[in-house]
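Posted in: Structural Biology > Protein-Ligand Complexes

Title: Requesting predicted complex, glutamic acid in pocket

I'd be grateful if someone could produce the C-alpha cells for the following input. Sequence and ligand are given below.
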Amino acid sequence: MNPETVRKQTVSKVKRVVLKLGSSVVTSESGLDETAIEGIVDDVCRYKRLGKEFIIVSSGAIAAGVRRLDLKEGARTIPQKQAAASVGQTRLMAAYEEAFGKHGYRVGQMLLTRDDLIHRNRYLNARNTLMTLLGWNVTPIINENDTVMVEEIKLGDNDNLSALVATLAEVDLLLTLTDQEGFMDCDPQTNPDACLIPLVEELTPDIMKLAEGSTSRVGRGGMASKLEAATKAGRFGIPMIIARGKIPHIIPRVMEGELCGTLILPAKERISARKHWMRYNLVPEGAVRVDEGAARALARGGVSLLPVGVIEVEGHFEHGAAVRVKDPSGKDVALGLVNYSSEELGKIKGRQAFEIDWILGYRTSDEAIHADNLVLMET
Ligand code: GLU
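-- Reply #1 --
Done. Output follows.
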C-alpha cells in the first residue's frame, strides 16, 4: 500500500478524534507548558469550527504538580504522585479552560479509573456523559484519576486510557502526540540511525517486538504501550496516528494527510462494542483450561465452550465472573463470562450437558461460557 494514499484516505473520513497528549507535550522543564497547550488548542479549535469533534486525553498532572510544588526529587511514592497529580490537575484544567475560552469554547473534566470501566453501568454512564458533552460542543478533557489510583483500579497509563476512550466514543481516529517522531524501526535513544515507519498495515508479533522495552522519559507509557493502545483501538476499527507533539502545527499537518508520524491501520477482524468492553476492561478472576478439540473449535469463532471441553479450573470465581480460557499448553486463547462458579465447574468439567442435572441437581445452562460472552484473544 502506498503510505501517502492510505494516509490521505484515512484522514479524509475523520469526524471525531481522540487527541492524546503526553506529559512531554504539555509540560517542559519549568512546569506546565501553557504556550504549547495554547498552540495545540488553537489548532483544535480551527477544526472544531469545521465541524470536527475532539476529545482530549491529557497527561501532565503529575509532572505539572511536581514542578509547581518544586519537588526536587520528583514524586517517588504513590501518595506523592497522587498528591502531585491533585495539584497539577487543576493547573492543567485551568490551562485548557483558558486556551479554549479564547475561542469561545468550553471544556469539561472527566477523571476515570479502571473501576469506572469494569462496571458496565458506570462504563455506560461515562459514555453518556461524554456524548452529552460532545452534543453541547464542550470538549471533554480526560485523565486518569491519579489521586485514587492503587494497583487494582489503575489503568496503567494514558495510552491505554486513550484507546478505551476512543472505543467508548466510537471515534474515527486516535491521534497520539508524544516526544517521538512516531514509531521507529529501532530505539532512537540508543540508535541515532533509527528510521521512522510511516505506515504499519498490521501489528504483527515482529512489529510488537520492535517496541519492547521503550519508555517515555516524562510520562508513563513508552512505544510498547502505544502499540497496545493501537491494538485495542484497532480491534474496534479505529486507526491510530503517533506523531511528535512539539512539531509546530502538528494537528493540521496530520489532519491534512501530510506524511508525518506513523499511521497504524486497524485490524481486519473487528469485534463488537460489548465484546471489546469485555476484552479490554474486565479483569479475569480465574481460568479454565480446555482440551485440544475445544481450543481448536473456539479459535474458529462463534462457538460456545461446553463443560465437556474443560479439563481444569483455576482460582475461585462466582457465576458471571470473567475468566481466562487457556489451551492445554496454558496459552490464553479467549476471555469469557462463565455460567457456573469455579466450584460447580470443578464438578461438571469433562461431562456432557445431560449429566449436569445428575451431578449438580440443576442445570443453569448447557454451556460453560456462551459464544455471546466469549471473546478471542488477538493472535
Ligand atoms: N495521569 C498521569 C498524569 O496526568 C500521566 C499518565 C501517563 O503519562 O500515561 O500525570
